[in-house]
Specification:
334 residues; 12 strands; eight-stranded mixed beta sheet; Rossmann fold; N-(1-d-carboxylethyl)-l-norvaline Dehydrogenase, domain 2; 2 domains; alpha/beta; 12 helices
Length: 334
């Protein structure tokens, strides 16, 4: 594991974000094996490669990659990028552990808090790392990925400080690896703050846009909706402050609104999940604030309401129009 450039990389779970990483790493000349759904594999085989459109509208047909629907002992597992949804982690970690070696390193590129815990049940902690990305992406159809925003990648270790002798050299090599793929990458000494910060913003953006069925930019289109967006952000911030995790109110609001503006034309992942009848990541976003608030015995009414509405939509217990009207009734109080 001394040199990561042109090493063997496995991407497990090739959706929108995983597709962008696959495309950029393949274009940089790295050896890739993609573990994806059968529909994705068939599309790539039928069309002669992964179709990729970058943020600056360059089109690529990427042929230098291997696609499988499951792992096999012949696949060398040196570096595994896990880009599945967080709720799949227990099953994914079990599967990867069956084929991994002591030299394997796992990088979780996911939303959510505490994602590493399920992996460290099956891997030693020194083999598991976290990453947070602001890359925006969309799957137009199986085997066809569009990069909506280039974004950044932040690397670190969840749940424990970085070891200067082992973790830091490895993460520095990862920075070099992703830099060759034109992905701006940094190392966070305390990635837990980075994770919570993104979770704060996602918890205010994703469920609101998903319930209303709107693009991200609509959050800033009207005063009441913008005030509600701010209120959800600040409720999460106050809960974290009760747990001694501090963020500047003005900086948080400014950065959240900048993200909304940058991704104004995007449909958030939670909205896409609901439209496709898939499970959302609400348990790893708003529910984390509800759970922490209960532990601290503080209130989290807005996060509770958003969590409840999304869960009812997920489970088919509430019609979309009724959920939308219920949320608008709450928004109209602001």
């Amino acid at each position: 594991m001394e040199m990561l450039i042109y090493m063997n990389i496995t991407i497990f779970g090739v959706g929108a974000v995983g597709g962008v990483f696959a495309a950029r790493l393949a274009l940089a000349g790295h050896n890739l094996c993609l573990i994806a759904r059968e529909s994705f594999m068939r599309a790539v085989l039928d069309q002669g490669g992964l179709r990729f459109v970058s943020e600056n509208n360059q089109s690529f047909q990427i042929t230098e990659l291997e696609v499988r629907t499951r792992l096999h002992k012949t696949i060398p597992l040196e570096l595994i990028l896990v880009t599945t949804k967080a709720y799949d982690n227990l099953e994914v970690s079990r599967e990867l552990a069956r084929f991994a070696s002591p030299e394997t390193r796992v990088l979780l590129i996911q939303n959510g808090v505490g994602n590493s815990q399920e992996f460290t049940q099956h891997f030693p902690s020194h083999q598991v790392y976290r990453a947070i990305t602001t890359i925006g992406a969309q799957v137009l159809e199986p085997g066809f990925v569009i990069e909506k925003a280039t974004g950044t990648l932040t690397l670190g270790k969840e749940g424990s400080p970085l070891d200067s002798e082992e973790d830091l050299p490895f993460l520095e090599q990862l920075c070099e690896l992703f830099t060759t793929a034109q992905i701006t990458t940094t190392i966070a000494p305390d990635i837990q703050r980075v994770i919570w910060r993104k979770t704060l913003i996602n918890a205010a953006l994703n469920p609101v846009c998903a319930i209303l069925g709107v693009k991200n930019g609509c959050l800033l289109d009207g005063a009441r909706l913008e005030h509600f967006f701010e209120a959800v952000l600040l409720e999460g911030q106050q809960i974290l402050e009760s747990s001694s995790i501090f963020f500047s109110r003005s900086e948080l609001l400014a950065s959240a609104k900048a993200i909304v503006q940058k991704t104004a034309e995007n449909r958030c992942s939670m909205l896409q999940d609901l439209l496709h009848g898939k499970r959302t990541e609400i348990d790893y976003l708003n529910f984390q604030f509800v759970k922490l608030a209960n532990q601290l015995r503080v209130a989290a009414p807005l996060n509770e309401q958003l969590y409840s509405l999304i869960k009812h939509l997920e489970e088919g217990n509430l019609q979309r129009e009724k959920a939308k009207n219920q949320l608008l009734a709450i928004v109209n109080r602001f």
